[in-house]
């Protein structure tokens, strides 16, 4: 395995019960510095794949490695390296924002000084500092998402995995998140995320995989894939063909 491979998905397959495979023989490699977009129609298998990567969903076949550690055999190692922001963050509603962030910081054993610095930095960036003392139950969807993102960033993950992160974020917060993704990747981390917003993916990602009915039908660098066309037209074309 190359030194700079952060996420390696090898022959991953998953079925829910006896039904047909929701993910079928998925192979995909994310390297340090990549902002890797995962696109595909509703029900294609994006969340199913993402949830296996971050260790919240068991899988039948294949192997997934994070920085060389097996998700199956070394789950704790993998979780230390990974941040996961689900499509619908389910936070502890009866905690305040700051209590929640401190709880996550405790789980990841982040020292006092570092957590304070990072919470302040990201809360300011997402303009949520003034609301951190309020109960999460009083937050809007976007505010909850911001807290989920901050909680993911405070342990400085090597791999950030996001499931449709731009849904529900206001334009400023989307811009901030994109900036953070760039910063992380410049520092050697990697980002893997699903999205339906192809304009954003086209501008943001250096690599893309397209999944259809549980199978990867196209993957590569943005230049290889688009060759001057828009990502949207390439997507619609390959979706139709394959
Ligand atoms: N818990 C579950 N039990 C049974 N089937 C499921 C479950 N979760 C997902 N599926 C099925 O697996 C397939 C892939 O679903 P998945 O949620 O991974 O799609 P997706 O690409 O994330 O779609 P979307 O863009 O709508 O979020 C779908 O056919 C879906 O019906
Ligand atoms: Mg999904």
UniProtKB/TrEMBL annotation:
Source organism, top-level taxon: Bacteria
Q: Name one GO molecular function term.
A: ATP binding
- Domain ABC transporter spans what residues? 7-238
Instruction: Give the transmembrane region(s).
Output: none
Give a yes or no for keyword Metal-binding in this entry. Answer: no
Q: Which InterPro entries match?
A: AAA+_ATPase, ABC_transporter-like_ATP-bd, ABC_transporter-like_CS, ABC_Transporter_VariousFunc, P-loop_NTPase
Q: Which UniProt keywords apply?
A: ATP-binding, Nucleotide-binding, Transport
Which PANTHER family has this protein been placed in? ABC TRANSPORTER ATP-BINDING PROTEIN ALBC-RELATED
What name goes with this protein?
ABC transporter ATP-binding protein
Q: Which organism is it from?
A: Butyrivibrio hungatei
Taxonomic lineage of the native organism:
Bacteria, Bacillati, Bacillota, Clostridia, Lachnospirales
């Amino acid at each position: 395995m190359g030194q700079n491979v952060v996420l390696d998905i090898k022959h991953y397959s998953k079925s829910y019960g006896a039904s047909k495979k929701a993910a079928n023989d998925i192979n995909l490699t994310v390297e340090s510095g990549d902002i890797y977009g995962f696109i595909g129609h509703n029900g294609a298998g994006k969340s199913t794949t993402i949830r296996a990567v971050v260790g919240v969903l068991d899988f039948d076949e294949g192997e997934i490695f994070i920085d060389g550690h097996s998700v199956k055999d070394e789950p704790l190692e993998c979780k230390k390296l990974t941040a996961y922001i689900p499509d619908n963050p389910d936070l502890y509603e009866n905690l305040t924002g700051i209590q929640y962030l401190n709880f996550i910081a405790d789980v990841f054993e982040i020292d006092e000084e570092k957590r304070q610095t990072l919470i302040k930095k990201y809360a300011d960036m997402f303009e949520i500092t003034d609301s951190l003392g309020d109960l999460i139950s009083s937050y809007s969807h976007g505010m909850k998402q911001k807290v989920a993102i901050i909680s993911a960033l405070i342990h400085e993950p090597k791999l950030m995995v996001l499931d449709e992160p731009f849904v529900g974020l206001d334009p400023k917060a989307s811009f901030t998140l994109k900036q953070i993704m760039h910063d992380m990747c410049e520092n050697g981390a990697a980002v893997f995320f699903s999205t339906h917003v192809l304009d954003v993916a086209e501008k943001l990602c250096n690599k893309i995989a397209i999944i259809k009915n549980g199978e990867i039908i196209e993957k590569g660098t943005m230049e290889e894939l688009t060759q001057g066309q828009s990502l949207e037209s390439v997507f619609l074309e390959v979706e139709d063909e394959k």
